[in-house]
Specification:
The structure is a homotetramer. Chain A is 45% helix and 15% strand. By secondary structure, chain A is an alpha/beta fold. In chain A, the strands form 2 sheets. A 3-stranded parallel β-sheet of chain A has the order 1-2-3. In chain A, α2 (37-48) links the parallel β1 (29-31) and β2. In chain A, α1 (9-24) runs parallel beside α2, α3 (81-87) packs across α4 (99-110) and α4 packs parallel to α5 (122-135). Chains in contact: A-B, A-C, A-D, B-C, B-D, C-D.
């Protein structure tokens, strides 16, 4: 998960590498699916590494979908689809931050889904760790795509494989 | 699409064959995903023919999912997920009928998605054809899974491949 | 509930009277809220009789809302909002029929919400009665707005008042 | 908006006063509707001041609704209903903070709905102001319910009255 139109160049570079590493693990990459920012960069990274990509779109049809999405799920739900993104994921990696991404991380904490934060501000890190404390949710900070993948592997080893 | 707990033996036999034929076309089978009725039978048919299956669940987690689903999308939306099922499909084949399936066929007509009805009552056929007339939506009647697949092929040849 | 753009003059006349009679019972009228067809006519009838009206819109903002709606709930959910309409209602009266209305009646049957059908075709009556039989849901046929209200009163006397 | 089970005593006292002040302005109070935390406290405050209260529930029926809710909207959407809460509001006041509330504030920023934060941590304030900057959304900090109401009045004077 990560920002669309407001993604920085660094965010996009990290997302591309992250997508490639997700695919190398034989994991499925699920994003918001649009041809923009982190959704697009991570999906392109995953396809370059021959992975499978799913895009859960806010719109009612496939217009605006990234070319790098294999399985397109238009929902027609607008931003309410963010709740579906979280429930359909086993681990949430946020790469960069924006208002849509923040809603997803918050819903992940509420749903006790593990979260890994990559390239976010100090206030963002502190805030989501504050949110996670009372509900004993997992919020980890990664310094690189490689570390994010290692953290995800550790989390998945400790959990039931079903989303 | 089709009934869960109230699916008849005939419905389930037809759904199994339909799922297998969908997979033989190299199409992806999308169902409501639960381990019940048509969702389960069609998905098992598709897996037996080495197809890819997606299940869009009403629940917030994967409990109750059919073993024959490859890609599990828990939505937490309850019956509102029926609207997602329709938007994520290119052709809707209803095998048997129930109240959830009827809501999906009606939403398909509203969204101008083509519908094929298999093993439904005369009143059901007449009703959905009445609904489709003012909006010029496509509602076809199939006598067998084989005919349903032929109708779907005809529809897909005439349309843009994106859902 | 009832059709928007495809509502007939008779549908709209009946909906206006129905809205007025709902308000006279001191019931709250809940519709899909748009300035079109049955939603608009029923809401105008209710306001003329000094009732309270709620409109649950498919859109993300209030554009296109009927002037006769007091409480506007934009949902941004598209047709998935039909599921909310049903869960937020205690009795569903369908006045006329269209594809959106049919999805609502089907979801009402699935959710065991009582349904009253006014001014619908014979095939429609037969079909929804077929759907309701296996789940023991209530589907009644009314010949007039007055009879629909009497049926709703009978249903509400037998039930818990919470939606 | 505000936390449910994890609301502090201070959060609840502020929410009660806030609800009362919302009602005194003849505004309608919309909350998540459950008999818990800020939803319940704000609604009780509004009822004590003879206001109108709406509760948009995550559940499919009215179980667990606060006694102080006049208009109950069960949605069956789970946490996806948070997106509806935001779209149905003209101004969002967060009183205290939790993961569900954070998702609502983030969605409000995404939807360009004005947000007022009351009794939240410094990291929370900084984070949401960081999120709002690139999209020019309004995020204000209030020191008291009285100040929150004054800020809301200022915002509403500058805007179109429709949600």
């Amino acid at each position: 998960m990560g920002p669309g139109e407001f993604a920085s160049d660094t965010d996009q570079r990290l997302a591309y590498e992250l997508g490639a590493r997700v695919a190398q693990q034989n994991w499925i990459l699920l994003t918001g699916g649009r041809a923009s920012g982190i959704m697009d960069a991570a999906s392109r990274g995953a396809k370059q590494a021959h992975g499978l990509t799913i895009g859960i779109l806010p719109s009612a049809d496939a217009r605006g979908v990234s070319d790098a999405i294999d399985i397109v799920i238009p929902t027609g739900l607008g931003n309410a689809r963010n709740a579906v993104n979280i429930l359909a994921s086993q681990v949430i990696i946020a790469c960069g931050m924006g208002s849509g991404t923040a809603s997803e991380v918050a819903l992940a904490i509420k749903s006790h889904k593990p979260v890994i934060l990559l390239n976010v501000s100090p206030a963002c890190q502190t805030f989501f760790q504050e949110l996670s404390a009372p509900v004993s949710a997992t919020v980890m900070i990664a310094q690189s795509p490689e570390e994010a993948i290692e953290q995800a592997k550790t989390i998945l080893k400790l959990r039931d494989p079903l989303p």
